């Protein structure tokens, strides 16, 4: 397994990254269409490959995550692309909702200087339970050069919370979700890991 920046790959992995993302976040994306392949094509344009890190085995993307300064988003949505794949109404709806919830969704606190934000962690189904996400995040924290890292996770995603705790992250903030019935979560949990601390 190799761990490296997505823009350092020797093949165009945009569609594979999109598929891992779609499958990983399908619970929230299926509102626009239940067709995984259509969602994959519709969202493939949005990833800033310079901000994504991947785990790769052979030519297959096993896991993804983004690491940013918490200010510049790792995705950039294109309204025309979404309309082209999803149609006029669903495309505009997807653009509006995803722009608010993904591209412009900031933290409810100021990100200090030299703090990295770990975002959009997802593992391809065939690689789950093999420690790939753990190793990828560990690689990111060792190579991205920030003195501490923060992340956001849904309180209902207990598997991810346990993973982050094993990586040394600790909860430090919690914000109630405004629409828990629609979103399927009660709180956004914010976790932090200082480098050198376990």
Overall radius of gyration? 16 Å
Taken in chain order, the helices and strands follow as EHHHEEHHEHEHEHE
Mean pLDDT: 93
What is the count of structural domains? Answer: 1
Q: Kindly estimate the percentage of residues that lie in beta strands according to DSSP.
A: 25-35%
Question: At CATH's second level, what is the architecture?
Answer: 3-Layer(aba) Sandwich
Low-confidence stretches: none
Specify the biggest β-sheet.
7 strands, mixed
CATH superfamily: Gcn5-related N-acetyltransferase (GNAT)
Tell me the helix content: 25-40%
Would you give the CATH topology? Aminopeptidase
Distance between the termini: 25 Å
Instruction: Provide the structure class.
Output: alpha+beta
Which geometry do the CA atoms define? globular
In order across it, which strands form the biggest sheet? 1-2-3-4-5-7-6
Question: Which CATH first-tier class would you pick?
Answer: Alpha Beta
Number of strands: 7
The number of helical segments is: 8
